[in-house]
User: Fold this.
Amino acid sequence: MSLTPKTTLWDKLVWSWRPESNREAGSSIVSNFLLHWFPNRVTLKSLAFGYSLYLGTITFTLFLILTLSGIVLMFLYVPSVERAYWSIKDIDFAVSFGWLLRRTHRIAAHLMVATVFLHMFRVFLTGSYKKGSANGSTRPFNWVLGVGLLVLTLGLSFTGYLLPWDQLAFWAITVGTSIAGAVPLVGEQMRQFLLGGTIIGQNTLIRFYVLHVAFLPLILFGVSIWHMWRIRKDGGLAVVEQIREEAVESPPELPKKTKTYSILGIAKGTTVHVKEPSLLNKANSVPSSPFLTFRTLTIVLLTLVFTIGLALITPAPLEGPANPEVTPNPAKAPWYFLGLQELVGYSALIGGVIIPGLVIFGLALIPFLDREQKYIGRWFSNSSGRKWSVAGAGWGIVSTAVCMGIGVTMPVREMFPGIESQLFFDIVNPATLLLLTFVALYFLVLKITGSTRLAATATFSGFIVSFILLTYMGTALRGPNWDFYWPWQSWPEHPIQF
Amino acid sequence: MSTADKKVNNERRSFLTKLTMGIFGAGVASFSWPYLRSLSPNILYEPPQRFKIGLPETFSQGVEFLEKQRVYLFREGNSFHAISGICSHLGCTVKYTPFRQQKEMKVRNLDVVSTGEFHCPCHGSKFRDEGTNYAGPAPKPLAWHPLEISPDDGQLLVDISQKVGRDFRLVV
Amino acid sequence: MKKIGKKEITLLLVSSIIFLGLGAAAIIYDASPEWVYYQSEFRQIISENFGSVDLNSIPRGIQQIWVEDLNSSDRCITCHQGIGWKGLENIEQPWKTHPNPELFKDHPIEKFGCTICHGGQGLALSEYDAHGFVKHWEEPLLGKTIGMEYDPRNPPTLNEIKCNFCHRYERETAGMDLINHGKKLLRDKACKVCHVINGDGGSLGPDLTHEGDKHAEGFDFSNFATEQTTILNWHVNHFQTPNNVVPSSIMPEMNFQTKDAVALSMLVMSWKDNSELPIAYVPGLNKKDIQTPEEVEKEREMREGDGAFFVENSCFICHSIKGFNIKSPTEKGPDLSYAPDDVRARFSRDLEDFIFDPTGTMKIIFESQIVLTDEQKWEAIEKIRKAYNIVTNKSGEDKPEKNHN
Assistant:
């Protein structure tokens, strides 16, 4: 176990990536800049595929793919209302590999929105937002950073949606930004500030462009670095808590006296005794270099292969050029907002403001509501967590299906023709009902089990299912005039010129 | 496992790692190419190099500047020639400055009557009215471009992608 | 020390191989577009048909006609390389000569491109995309293929719709038979009694000036029996039986034959807002200064009357010629009608003598600005004498001497 001298330039460059001894492995972490943000050793539990599913790594890889393809696209795209659409056509048809860049960028963007959500689901379902017992852990705060990253990702995707300047972009952003207009009192001012006018125009395009290519990516990059740094500070992945729990139960080994020190010859002695039992040993952990680096490379590569493979077989659509005079039928927001658009269909205030506000605010508050410090880093906590999770999901399916059934079959406004008050319809509608069923679910489970964790698990599982169902409904089951169509019913054919 | 076995195993593993890294590197290279290639345009939105400028009789006697194409068109009676307005130094547009009176001078050992000269605004290069550089940093004369009569409608055709000698004249 | 498991290395190896494969696939796909094949075939055809042609003069790569005025860039000529060649009339598409090369005379390709007349997606570089029978491209290639959809036996030449975008104000245009027929029906059936078209007409029906710009969203297909929900079809049906398509319509049934209905449908579909079209592209516009009839007559007389010689040779810029009713704008020189007397009085010379050997200003002018041949000089002398006779009230028959020494 000694550092073999590195003589050739090649060895000097690569030794830290392929250490030949444990000591070299440790040394590589501190001497290589690119490796310094890894821990010295990583637990096998953290490395396991089945625990984290590497969703954070995948998300960040997708962000890097988006950055790289985005930089090249910035050279090829012209953010002006006259040229934007036609520059996209040129990217598709006349630029070498333009089609590949645009497809990769689009697919990676959709995947990133999806993986951010999945990452959040994973962190919630494993209870990884809990503080735990590590010194200086602020995992609840890192969860809040994560919610911020979710909002930033949605913002990036939303601003990028406008840039092709086709009918899809124009009307999706019209619908999307009008949701902001539903905010009481300041909504219209907010919407106009976002657009830089009363309708989408050159001001909007350049605003969204700058937000999309400079402002939001920089913030997202900064916050995600912060997010990852916090993981180190919080003592690694939450699954390490299990090792800590086990170690607490077993009696601590006697601390090793490894070093002697002297301060200016005044004081002499051995190292201070480490009170905390040593968590990492050869049995439960491996050196980060090369194990974590290798694993990271594998995940990055698999993400690349999946994304590019998907891009090669999925053409990026481009509709007709943006035309403020003609609204396509149906006009839909980006897919991750279609659940919201479904709810907005009942009440803009409830569906567009109160529910998304509560969801974002509620998500950020989760670690502060659920303060039980048990089952950290375990999927669904325990068997009763699994049970309540399934129950919550079932509740989500039923309540979403019932509320949407009511929405489709019983239009509230037609049932109460005598009432003119908008407030009445903002309160009495399927979206409000859906919200109430989730509030009921939370308190019901809390009452039965007395556990905030279980109540949150059930509600969160219900939320996931409901989110997926609503998104599916808005995407696939809503046709022209926002009419309801079963999956086996075909939509009326859209007329063409010739 | 014996030490020999271990060694063989290690060598095999090392080869496998090297092979993997090699293929991975090739993969990265194969995806860098599209990124670079996409930045070299296949189509240009530029005016054509060969263009019609109008019927010969519509041009006035003397010098006329075609702003869009940066070409000076000279007409002497029925004889035409075209001189590039792009300075041979660093590409600024030269300005034709007529003399108050015609001057007789010797250019390229020929006695000529000159009516003006070209001045470059960027670094003060000066050219005779037939393109010869005589002052400033310009390293060579202004380019002459060929003129022809378009066979279909009789318009003058300039081809700025081609160059001709300074004795070129198109007589119509 | 522990080593990384073989499984994990194998996983990385396999995904690296796939990664490299994807990169290779992308490069191969991008390097082999359709047009590469068409261009190499074209070279083959040229070398077979015209052995002497230098194949290197045939352009390679993506070709486009960029027309700034029309905001169009058509890349059709990337594959259709033969349209300007003579002698490829019988070759199959896409290498064929343009079937109506005489059209290029008034519609030079570098000023018009292709799609302004033919429709289609000129930016695209594969047959499928470029011919434009794709979702979200409203104007496909208006050729035989699409015409067959409407009348298989006698497919209408739908691209006349494109012609009429510019030619809409013409009463009749050569080669646009269906549109001409439509325009005739428009007059015969007095459509303007009920409809405003190009700014005037009745108000019983809607204004049709920009009917061709109406989007599919603006048409009601709910009473449509056929599957073919196209705007053209809507118009054809509506012209034949207005009430079947729009039950509340008060438009009378005119018993149009299919051909009439198609012609009229094409006509109304061609009525697009062309206000952004540069005026150079709109035929039938008078782009000249407006003159009074007297001015026109005077100019005609100057150009074609007895004094035309002096106008053509720019003498009138300085000299009036009263005898021929020519008035100089500057009057710098003396009236040429009196030249015979004038020359004698000032230079004591004959007119002939002076013209063949002038002095003073006229010497310079005759040497550099107005260079006349001897023949022209004799003609001038003859004409001057004629004018002299007119102003001095002598009969024009008095023959001038013609002494050729």
Summary: Chain B has two domains: 1-45, 50-171.
